[in-house]
Design a protein that fits this description.
alpha/beta, 3 domains, 13-stranded antiparallel beta sheet, TIM Barrel
């Protein structure tokens, strides 16, 4: 195992003066040091040989709270050029539309559907909101937020209607920004026997399909609090049946038969709370593509700045996550787990904290820890909308957590690496995470070290043999120095205050090239990304430096959705004389899993035939769990060209362990679910050609 050791030297400067002036006082971190902290140096070890986990490419995702549509005119703000520019910088990502008020919203269409042929949604080139209207809506939105907060405090939620206008704007906003829309449906529409009443959802799906809107779905928000919000109790088993009903509805749709469905969006585990998750997984795991849950560190109404900087509070995410992962693994071992909604403080966030630089410590630590623990997606509440935890404020200005999110997107790749921190100087107030760097911006082998310094003392990290490595530093601190700066709504990157350069232009987010042998500086109360551009991490390469002939064990996990039109004939045959030509680097000890979902129309003829060419682009890495999500929507009018060459040669010897989870919907009224475990023993004589980096 190759590793790089970083020597962590905790500098102990003279005692800093306690500053006053704002009335906010920081915890005296230096007077309450970690028990194991002394002057001995700590050592940070980076394991660059193998990835612990690979998250979804949309790992950092965002939400828009459904409260924005409580009065539909405010949805027009999604037509703002400025807001779309800010959203586009976070792509690729999911955009979840949901929250408490989704379960009090009813779709009220204003047009009569007569089949396909409705006017197309506005072009992205013609987007834009007149300035006078945008200014008017922003001012009115400030007043609307007061109304929404009052409703939330009183737990009196009024049922609201929304029309095609809301749906059109959401899809246009997400589509033009490069985001994947997830729409949350109302689960509190119930029948006399307390099952879900799907009639309104059917109208919405019918409309969205008529417009050709490619989107995914959720059902209900925090069902464990339904009784508190609406006096309705739904247990986990019933909730799972409701999701299965929604999946059956989707299977009858040409557009959504193989689409995404996520849930159940339960609240975080609590000692005396209702636990719906086990029952839901028992009856509904087969209906969803990922299991979602929500997490907040503290109550926004009674928290303090101390909490936002407390390592114990940050560590609480680990225990909650492990509890959820254990429950999911018990019932559905292969199910991806997402944080479907999360931020610093529940109850709309903490005023004067959740929208300041101080919130960045919770946000960046959550991203680092969630990825290391194995969560695949983290959805930030909210991108824009009600509450104090937004990334973009009511004036459409980006807040510190927005800039932090954009930097994360640009610098951090999906591969999670192991970083160790040992020695007497180890401090919980210095928190480190390690990923491969984003390969869209950096060459293979580069890594990104994520650092949080929660202390009001600076720390520096010394890198052995740093003279042979190039390091780019991206260091974020509050706009103003000292304790008051933590409550700032502006942020500096390498000394420069970050601001938009107009409605359509973000500033240059450039790193500072460090000279050879210079220590990596972690200023007091700072958030840092250090990109080691020539680290040579084998875990971050798609090529190998050697050619080998070997017998290998391959575990394949391919998530495949086929939505086949009734007049389409699919012909595929795995013939013994075909060649497997993976135009990629295949490494040993590769863990993949195959998840195959086929929704076949009763008149579809499926024939396995040797003449089909299926093209795909795959990047397979050494010692790494790889999840491939392939969505095929095949239609007579759609031409799909995926870049993959599969050729199976008769002399190819492969030792293959395949776990196949097969779902067949052969007819709208027939559902066949097969679980197959297939072991194939073939000898593989595989030459791995590589390009040395």
């Amino acid at each position: 195992m190759e590793s790089v050791s970083l020597l962590l030297l905790v500098l102990l400067p003279a005692l800093l003066r306690v500053q006053t002036g704002s009335g906010v006082r920081l915890p005296d971190l230096d007077l309450d040091p970690d028990p194991d902290l002394d002057s001995s140096p700590g050592v940070v070890e980076l394991d660059l040989s193998a990835a612990l986990h690979r998250v979804d490419r949309r790992f950092l995702s965002v939400t828009i709270d459904a409260s924005l549509a409580a009065e539909e005119k405010f949805m027009s703000l999604l037509g703002s050029v400025r807001l779309r520019t800010l959203a586009a910088a976070l792509a690729p990502a999911f955009l979840r539309f949901g929250g408490t008020r989704q379960d009090f919203m009813v779709f009220s269409p204003q047009t009569v559907l007569q089949g396909p042929g409705l006017p197309a949604e506005p072009s992205c080139d013609k987007r834009g909101l007149p300035r006078w209207l945008e200014d008017h809506l922003r001012k009115a939105w400030r007043q609307q937020q007061d109304v929404l907060r009052t409703e939330g405090l009183q737990r009196k939620f009024i049922r609201a209607k929304f029309t095609e206008y809301t749906v059109d704007l959401l899809h246009s906003f997400s589509n033009c920004s490069g985001l994947d829309l997830i729409f949350g449906l109302n689960a509190l529409l119930r029948t006399a026997d307390n099952s879900w009443n799907s009639s309104n959802a059917h109208l919405l799906l019918q409309y969205c399909e008529s417009r050709g809107y490619d989107m995914s779905w959720e059902l209900g928000n925090e069902p464990n609090s339904f009784e508190k919000k609406a006096g309705i109790r739904v247990d986990g088993q019933q909730l799972g049946r409701d999701f299965s009903h929604l999946r059956a509805m989707m299977s009858q749709s040409k557009l959504y038969a193989g689409g995404g469905l996520y849930g159940p969006d339960v609240g975080q585990p609590r000692a005396h709370g209702t636990d719906l998750l086990p029952g839901f997984l028992q009856s509904g795991a087969g209906a969803v593509n990922a299991c979602t849950w929500h997490h907040y560190y503290v109550n926004g109404r009674d928290t303090s700045l101390d909490d936002f900087l407390d390592p114990g509070v940050l560590d609480s995410l680990a225990s909650k996550t492990q509890e959820v992962l254990q429950k999911v693994k018990l019932e559905s071992p292969e199910m991806p787990v997402w944080l479907g909604e999360t931020s610093s403080a529940f109850g709309g966030g903490a005023a004067g904290l959740s929208d300041t630089f101080a919130a960045g410590f919770m946000w960046l630590d959550k991203l680092g820890l969630a990825a290391r623990l194995g969560l695949d997606v983290v959805m930030r509440q909210v991108f824009f909308g009600s509450g104090f935890y937004h990334l973009v404020d009511e004036n459409l200005d980006p807040l510190p957590d927005y800039w932090l999110s954009v930097l994360y997107k640009r610098l951090v790749g999906p591969e999670v690496l192991k970083v160790g921190f040992s020695g007497a100087a180890r401090s919980k107030r210095t928190r480190l995470y390690l990923h491969c760097a984003n390969r869209d911006r950096y060459s293979e082998g580069a890594v990104t070290l994520i650092s949080l310094n929660l202390r009001k003392k600076p720390t520096r990290i010394s890198v052995p043999a740093a003279s042979s490595r190039t390091v780019e530093a991206f260091v974020l601190v509050a706009e103003r120095p000292g304790e008051e700066g933590l409550l700032s709504r502006s942020v500096r990157l390498n000394g420069d205050v970050l601001k938009m350069l107009g409605d359509e232009t973000l500033p240059e987010l450039t790193g500072r090239r460090l000279p050879p042998s210079e220590h990596l500086q972690l200023p007091a109360f700072s958030l840092s990304f250090h990109v080691l551009t020539d680290a040579g991490a084998s875990a971050c390469n798609s090529t190998s430096t050697s050619t080998t002939t070997s017998t290998s064990t391959l575990h394949l996990h391919l998530h495949l959705h086929l939505n086949l039109h009734p007049y389409l004939n699919l012909q595929l045959n795995l013939h013994p004389y075909l060649n497997l030509n993976l135009n990629l680097n295949l490494h040993l000890n590769l863990h993949l899993h195959l998840h195959l979902n086929l929704n076949l129309h009763p008149y579809l003829h499926l024939n396995l035939h040797p003449y089909l060419n299926l093209n795909l682009n795959l990047n397979l890495h050494l010692n790494q769990n790889l999840h491939l999500h392939l969505h095929l929507n095949l239609h007579p009018y759609l031409h799909l060209n995926l870049h993959l060459n599969l050729n199976l040669h008769p002399y190819l010897n492969l030792n293959l362990h395949l776990h196949l989870n097969l779902h067949l919907n052969l007819h709208p009224y027939l559902h066949l679910h097969l679980n197959l475990r297939l072991n194939l023993n073939l000898n593989i004589h595989l030459n791995l050609y590589s390009i040395s980096t």
